[in-house]
Design a protein that fits this description.
Length: 171
């Protein structure tokens, strides 16, 4: 069984209720594991997952490719509020770097939506034997009760934040 730490980046506008009784709040998360990128999944993607290709033009994997000319673009009607990204992060994570917008150029940055505030939630998860598909890993995950909120500047560039979770509290 693999143990992992997941962080969810949610565009913030509606606050979720903090869990007081987490014993019955286990969820299943299906996350893509693409070599060279990492392990992640979004709640939607523009021209998203067609069941064959995991990495489309606006895939969540673009968040991990270290190329600012690519972007994850949510695929729901509207402005993307409440869409989420699940990313597996290493235990030694100390800093979160966010480029909050389309980084290909300043013009595209200003023509597209950008989050102003995001919610960070943490999940602790396990991958039981046999919980896999052809393209993904399935985790049983439990949400950590504390969330953190980050207000982003409307700036074309990387913004760095201290990782807000204390790993020993999550274990």
């Amino acid at each position: 069984m693999k143990l992992l730490l997941l962080i969810t980046f949610c565009i913030f506008f509606n606050l979720s209720v903090l869990f007081s009784d987490t014993s019955s709040k286990w969820i299943e998360l299906l996350l893509y594991d693409v070599p060279g990128y990492g392990i992640c999944k979004a709640t939607s993607e523009l021209n998203g997952d067609n069941g064959v290709e995991v990495i489309g033009k606006y895939s969540v994997m673009n968040l991990l490719d270290k190329d600012f000319s690519t972007a994850w673009v949510e695929g729901k009607q509207g402005n993307g509020i409440t869409e989420s990204v699940y990313i597996v992060i290493p235990e030694e994570c100390k800093t979160i770097n966010i480029f909050a917008g389309y980084g290909k150029n300043s013009s595209l940055y200003h023509k597209n939506n950008r989050p102003k505030k995001i919610k960070l939630s943490s999940f602790i998860g396990i991958n039981p034997d046999g919980y896999v598909s052809e393209t993904a890993i399935i985790y049983k995950a439990l949400k950590f009760e504390k969330d953190f909120y980050i207000t982003l500047k409307d700036t074309f560039g990387i913004q760095s934040f201290k990782f807000p979770f204390i790993i020993s509290e999550l274990e």
